## 1
Amino acid sequence: MKPTLLFYGNCQAAALSVIFSADPTIAEAYNVLHIPSFDDRIPDSVAVNDEAIAATTVFFDQHDKAPFPKGDILPADCRRVTFPSVDLFLLWPLHCVNVYNDAPTPQTLWGRFPYGDRAVVDGVMQGLSAGEVLASYETASQRALPDLDRFEKLEYARLRARDAQCEVKMSDFVVGAFRTQNLFWCVNHPSMFALRELTHRLIAAAGEQATELQRAAIDATIATLHPEGPLSDMHAPIHPAVVDHFKLEWYPRDDGPYFGLRDNRLTYQQYLREMIECSVRVRDEAALGLPTSSATQ
Amino acid sequence: MTDDDIFERLAGVVRETFHVLPATRVLEETTSADINGWDSLSHAILIMRVEEEFGIELPIERIYSLENVGELAELVRSTLEERP
């Protein structure tokens, strides 16, 4: 039985396991496994057996409120590398739980609009029609935006506080690169550029415990994968005022269809309109006591 | 401003920020886990609304180590006291 490289954490840990297992050198030497720290809703998600956990040589442990539940099975001499979740709310300061998201389907496991917008949610909550929410969005969103300079300081503090609890750090990279590089597709889904950096840092931290990891040509492997990375299903648009404030060099300035789900990319205006129409429909169905329907095109 | 005044105003900000239902009490021991939508992002939004409510700037190094609403109230109180 091959030794195990075990990833524990959220969807980012799953994405890392995809990258690691795509590398021929790594795949030949190790079983690369992921145990989610959340309900991943993936139908063919494979349960990891205790025997594979007991064969772990490197345990990549993402910092999480829910600690790894089978720590007692891990070998005492396995290398434990702690790393942070890589996220950035700074570019989406209006992000909130979308209580008006539509129902999940096999194609949209998290609904079509899992990432809420505070200005939209507030408008829908006030009982406005879809047309009214759309018409008032520019004014409402400007009013809802926080002081971005203060928010930036708070975000950096949040990232540093989490880094302090991990062996592998990422806040320096995120803070240093978010203006010039596309690091995130939405608040918690890093791009391949960011995942590549995290991959290199994890491999370096694993050290001599996993010699085959050090031999892997990980950049060549990444070049064979989807250039947007495993977490690019959903692209959330960034508010124009935020793009301007932080002078995001990489952000597209034209009106292209860049946003929403991978199979149905929309322009900024289309995304906004569809999210608002979906939210109002979900609200109205709930008021009538109807079950929330899934996406209607 | 008394400690009770500070807490009541703070609890009001918490209620408004997270749309807390009237039946749900906000107590000193209330934590983020007790309130739907209070996550690491909305924590920053809450902090900025608290700062606006009290006209202060809270010390950033303390903001992400707060355990509950009571500790946030204490931080507000001490920041108010230190205000020139």
## 2
Amino acid sequence: MPLNAYLIVGALLFTIGAAGVLVRRNPLVMFMSIELMLNAVNLSFMAFAHFLDSVDGWMFVFLVLTVAAAEVVVGLAIIVAIFRTRREIDVDELNTLKG
Amino acid sequence: MTSHIDGIQIWMLAPELSVVLLGFLVLGLDLITHNRRVVAATALIGLLIPLGFTLSLVVKQDALTPDHTAFFHMLVVDGYALFFQFLFLVIGFGVLLVSYGYVEKFLRVTIGEYYSIILLSLAGMMLMASTGELISVYISLELTSIPLYILAGLSRSDTRSAEAAVKYVLLGAMSSAILLYGMALLYGATGTTDLTEIARNTQAALSSGNLVLLAADVFIFTGFGFKISAVPFHMWAPDIYEGAPTPSTLFFSVGSKAAGFAALLRVFIFGGLAAISGGTYLWVMVAIVAAVTMTLGNVVALLQTNIKRMMAYSSIGQAGYLLVGFAAIMISNSPAGNLGILAFLAVYVVTNIGAFTGIIGLADATGKENIRDFDGLGRRAPFIAAGMGLCLLSLAGIPPMAGFWGKLFILLTAWNQGSALTWLVVLGLINSAISIVYYANVVWRMFVAEPEKRDRLAMSGSVTLTMAVAVVGILALTIAFGFLLTGLGGGAGGLFPTATTP
């Protein structure tokens, strides 16, 4: 398959993920959407790395995966903390601070 | 460049390394001893070690590797990096010192936990200024951000704090994803993640009219836009500044912003991305973002009743001025423009630490954080009020305060770019006038308005000491800039090193 095919799939995934973050109201689903965006990035990196025949892209993917895991650990812990204080986690209910 | 890791390379990483080790040491010490003073003293005195390493790198610049890079270009220790390392160590010292009393009173964490999180984030910030590679830019950005999410949610009994943390982690992770997508495109267009190589390859890619490169530029700028709270990516800032514990807010407003600009400038200048802006009018986007950011920040700040929200919008406005300097760099593609940005950042950091010290002092003593609670503070806590007033006036840019010189440097840089940015400079001056209203309002309340209670407020030693340091810092910067501008103190170039395109 040509490089463009991978990039188009990557761009689509990234757009779906971004739309998910903006549209969905549950922090867990928003997190999943962010993961989708990161995976779109990973796909693009791998496609580029394969076609450029360079290892930098592969290394980047490894590190993105690792760091994203750390980020999710902190994110989920914070969501658990907010669930304990409020008993619900819909972001529309998070309106004490008025934006 | 050597192919193996030798002592010199470890030495070049020593400032960051020692900050990380100090973070672990403080965390471990917290388990052994329950004496808060010992832990705090260890952290504060321990910061002298990375400071020593940074100074040794400044003095012995000739002994470094020839191109000032280490670990296969992952680390760049040039004047620009050392300037920021010094700035971040000052930030770390100020934040650790001022939060001592607050943590005990309002947070259900031990001082060691709080300090270690701040120190780890600080190491990330120092690395952000010294990276020469997209991979290390990303890793150090996350090393900075993840502890910041925790810092936002630390006051666990407060629902506002938890809410701030959720918003911060969601928007922060999303902005990282956007930044990463830009990096992926940049990697695809240039075939490398090394910024010096990218700079070399962008010229070639540009001559073939590469739209991917332009898209990468926009994504990267957007990703950093979140970190520096530029409009339209600023929505998170007021909520998170208000909800987070106040010392954490101080850390976000100075540390996170300075680190964001450090990495933004590094990627755009070192990576040669600014070079493609001239032909593509990318600078117009930056100029518009700068104009909207400073105007929205300063106008909305007028309407706030909570002092932390006001400072949030004020910091958005200040980011706008910094972006004016960035627009000048984009249009000229000359690193000389970052002199203004560095000068402005140094002043911004010191004055913001002072202003937040006043806010933390009031919160320590009374637990209040509305603007009207500052009524008569001049009589209730004269020294803190005087110091905070000085900082606010400097933020407003009243001559001859340091903030005025900082703004002057930035606006002059933009002015020198010719007619293209004249409107931006005029807008900057108008904004400066608007900002005087809300800064002076707080000062007026502190010194003229009648207080509800006339009791003297007891300020903790840590708050008083931080304020003293901030005031001395501002006065020193004011005098230094005064000398620089009148030409008595030598060229500005010696004081503020530039990140040069290789």
## 3
Amino acid sequence: MLLQLRRTTTKYSAITMTNLQNQLAYVWEALNRAVFIILIMFVFIQLWTAVYESQGATEIAGLSLSATIWYFLIAEVMELGKIRHDERISEEVKDGSVAYTLTRPYNYLAYHFFNGLGETAVKMTLIFLLGLPLVVYYAGWPTLQPQHALPVLLVAALAMLLDFFVFSIIGLLAFVTEDTFSFRLIYQKLVFILGGLMLPLDFLPAWLQPLARVLPFNLTTYAPAKLFVAFTWAQFWQILALQAIWLTIFGLVLLRQYRWATRQLVVNGG
Amino acid sequence: MMKRIQAELSFLRALVGVNLASAMEYRASFISQIVGMFINNGIYFIFWIIFFNQFGTVRGYNMDEIFLLFAIVTLGYGLGFMFAGNTRQYMAYLVAQGRLDYYLVFPRNLLLHVIFSKMIVSTVGDVAFGLIAYSFTGRFTLVEIALFLSTAVLAAIIFVGYSVITGSLAFYMGNAQYASQQMTNAMLTFSLYPNSLFSGAARMMLYTVIPAAFVGSVPVDIVRYQDGRLLLLLLAAAVAVWLVALAMFYYGLRRYESGSAINVNV
């Protein structure tokens, strides 16, 4: 049993390390893609500075301008660093190569997750480091207490897992619809508004906030970013409970969908 | 001269027709890309509705100006890349890979042939969105409509000209795909935000290196204040952008090296 566990851990960590090495080999390319964060953070900083000025307020919904700027950096790191494997799954389904990848000695979805981790680690680090100088210049250093760092990291890790589940469901929809572009787009755009990417949930109209807080979108982006800038244990436990509920729901849907999809696959030899 | 222009125009018309036919070959993908872009723009719109609802006017901009800004930018962007989509990273790729040979052998205007050889399907969604967004502005006098359409066309010309500049960077720096993509994205991103948010060097940049002001805020002011002088300024900006684009492209072409690749354009 222990031997089996050790073999499995070694196998998947090797997958992560291989992709990490690949990403590091082409770090210049990854850096070029990540440069976008400087532009978008600059625009956000100008916009929210103007908003705080026009409101004549030092705080809006409990967030200072500095906290809001840091919030956007973390939210962007979460959004731009996501594991984007759904397109790969759809491509594999469309071109039929899924027939080969499914027979390999690993779990298909676990492979995509651990493979994506290597890429995501490089992307998130680069995005954070590129955005950091601008954010520190305009907002100073963050006020996160060291004892809150671990809970924030836990929520961020669960956020990535939740997001991975949703993108896997979207990718596997290719078995039914072939093209999954519109599903991906709709999910991403829901994260923009209801996930807190463009506005922290606290800034949404009062009637929309309760709905946005229980839906899964905010748990992937808003949750880690908000806890990073204004940590409270009460909000941490609430977010953790919601993440557990949505992970269970999406996990069950994904499992069912995966079993169904693998049964649909017909492989003709030759 | 007139015959030459007529021949070029009919060639371009044929190119656009072929692009459209080939895009519509995959009907589901064609529709989903257009609808997808429509939703994409719609979400930004919803963001601004919530934003102004919560915070009121910010630096002279409120929802009315945003409707107009989105109408002009999306229509301009859509019109530009619906017809002339083979610019920015696509052009940079052709140059870096030495794949301009295919176009060089034709007895046609090289630059026009290159840029009109690709249609960005999703921009049809931008065009539709721009027209619908304009219907929310409540500006329906003949002068306002004429100014809206003419500024959107000028914005399209500037968008394409600027993306020829960014695509031509490949002649000078080799692999310029990311640089050209980022620069065009920067122009689009900045153009969709009120110009009054930016000051100092950043504002100066929006009138020069990344001329986003000329496809966003300036056209909005032209329609808002029915300002003829600003319209002339916009026209001058379009000419200037294209002079730089032509210089960058044709001067760069002297440095072009063929990839000797066998290239099949289907």
## 4
Amino acid sequence: MSQDGRILKFEIFRYNPQKKDDTPRMVPYEVTETPGMSIFIALNEIREQQDSSLQFDFICRAGMCGSCGMVINGKPDLACRTLTSKFKDGHITLLPLPGFELIGDLSVNTGKFMQAMSERVESWIHDVNADNMNFNKLEERMDPDIMDEVYGLERCIECGCCVSACATKRMRPDFLSAVGFMRLGRFYLDPRDKRTDEEFYEIMGDDDGIFGCMTLLGCEDHCPKNLPLQTQIAFLRRRMAMVK
Amino acid sequence: MNIIYTDSLIIGGGLAGLRVAIAAKQRGYDSLILSLMPAKRSQSAAAQGGMQASLGACAKGEGDDEDVHFEDTVKGSDWGCDQDVARMFVNTAPKAIRELSAWGVPWSRVRGGDEEIIVNGNKETITEKHEAHGLITARNYGGTQKWRTCFTADGTGHTMLYAMGNKAMQMKIPVHERKEAIALIHEDGVCYGAVVRDLINGELIAYIAKATTIATGGYGRLYADSTNAVISEGIGCAIALETGIATLGNMEAVQFHPTGILPMGLLASEGCRGDGGMLLDKNMHRFMPDYEPDKKELASRDVVSRRMIEHMRKGKGAQSPYGEHLWLDITFLGRKHIEKNLREFKEICEYFLGIDPVSEYIPVRPIQHYAMGGVRTKVTGESPTLKGLFSAGEAACWDLHGFNRLGGNSVAETVVAGMIVGEFVADYCAVNSLNISTNTIEHFVNIEQKKIGDLLTRKYGENPFKLRAQMQKIMMDNVGIFRNASDLEQAVEALKVLNQRAKTVALQNKISSSNPELVAAIRVPKMIKLAQCVAYGAMLRTESRGAHAREDFPERNDRDWLKRTLTSWPDDDADLPEVTYEALDVMKMELPPDNRGYGVDNTIGHPDTEKREAQIKEIKKANKKADRFEMQALLNPIPIPEKFKGKNERIGRGYK
């Protein structure tokens, strides 16, 4: 439980690449803790009361939109749903997610990365009939269990924590990363997507794809949605290894 | 000057904006979307419980069709909605959901055979038909006669948004991220696009288009406590208002969701109550049946929210460090159901409260959730006063929801309006050419450039964050669930003062590029104007209708108030908007005003109601052989685009 009234000590990465002569540095801030306080609340308080130039991204502030990934005391996580009470000594260090273009301070351009990822894996249903469908007719029947499973994989919110936690990505700048494999796994499972194994192989059958993963489990350990990333990666790798 | 040209400019990359862009692009017109952030992070993703469409495939949805959905929607709106729009909407919703299925939404499906459900706190077994196995299923929601809310667990908005975003990407529709439209460009009553600020480098860009669509979502952040995303600040509506030409509709119609979770104001999906969840007071007594013995927790949202406040006012609320609240109990749904169909909600409870809803109760109270009001449009989605300006989704007052929106009708509106309005946008692009001089464009860019320059050079002045917080408090305290003349008058006066103060904002951080304080400084005066529209409209409307509940005027007054509020701001120096009204024509209603069926009926009737009822009786008598489609055409002919005229098939019923 949160200890009402204690002083939280923040160390926050500051750097604005838009500003000439600005240099990266860590800046300390103090905030008085309130009941149920999250990093979302604390950061807004710092911006509104102490330093109006502090940059960070929040949108839904409910753990659903994936905007607020940052490195919190050394671990990538969603800031909106990280409660300050979690940190016994009241020290909280915040850094932007590595592996993405920095916009400023804690704000990174995950959008640009995710757009490129989605285009690369062609993140849509491949079915020539989908555009000529007759929407007045009964929809195509789907196995209820498979649809539930597809949802289980589609829960990914593109926060980027898996990318930041991935050592392969650090070595291979074009590594597709767990978020990309998750997306491919989602379409691979979906009977509405008519792509063949060979077509999937074209997308991920190399060292920047499924064969590059070193299974260090950083993605799995840090996925805020607890998605089965390593299981999916192992599954896809096995399927792709069987493509002639 | 940086100018970007396109056919169809869409401001907002949520479900409505994406679908409008897709529609225009399908017809061969270039579409370009502006978004404050990556489109897949839009507020649409936060829609949890589902989307209403009368597919009627599941056992409890049997017998459902467009007519039943229409009746629920009109009743839910407290007869404030536009019935032509409601008709177009209910007829198109099944098509929208099937299209999204083909585009990849993993809708939860019917499982043939026996299934255990919770109704009214008791276990019941229902039998799903084997012939419906694998079709899209639905859950129960408030204010509906059938189980009509289609879903993917409680992440429906997320899966819809991803499917729609993916489709737009496949069609190569550009989304310009981290761009904010701060003013509309218009000349001689025609809109030609927007002045847009790049949120990273601060550059102003003119986006010029034949048709401009505002799809920026709601204005929940005018309130201190809202379920809405922090970007739901109503800026799209505000830039329409600031043209002085476009009008906003029913701005005072603001919905409070019964189950906001304390202390953060996060949403507990209506799916919780739809699936059988109950509301308890401090004595663990289930109180809703005492007030609404028929619909109980599944009365319309406005009704449940008011009953909760009423109950707390009787001293029945539980106390906590975060304030007074009631309890939401879903424990009896069982772990399996919760982990499958309410898993996102479970995650919220675990992370934010450290509570497992399988075994513990959740602290809830009503908080701001949805804006029925917005940019007033015709049925085509176009502003009746500013040509070439369209709007769709929560940002619009297309007027599907009147004074109260049904749960599950908002994501449904975004995609259905996207489809229908998108066709009209394409029609508009087909017959209109761009006819605007660079002088005009420059004029509008210069105005914004000067305003920003003033903000960056003013030495002393108001703090934008403080102004925003003061506005949010006024709205919360004085323009909330229950309203009265004295509170509203106070709010209107206090907001006038804030409006003046917002003219002299000064910044501490004086840089023009990426700068959160500058963003707030640009938005706050716009938000205060919107708040004034809400408060002033609420003060003037001396009746209670849907979510607008006046303690001093408790009756719904059809005689004097069966009309839509229109707000505009023609004189920028004025300290109040201009308000006019647009009467709803009872003689054209398919469903004339009636009792909604909650509490005591104290409606003051409209003089035309009986006349229209008699007329409908006559029409029905004279056309005894007409089927339901022919009858609807007789009672309520609607201008629906050709594409969407087809009848919808249902299992066991065909196209009847």
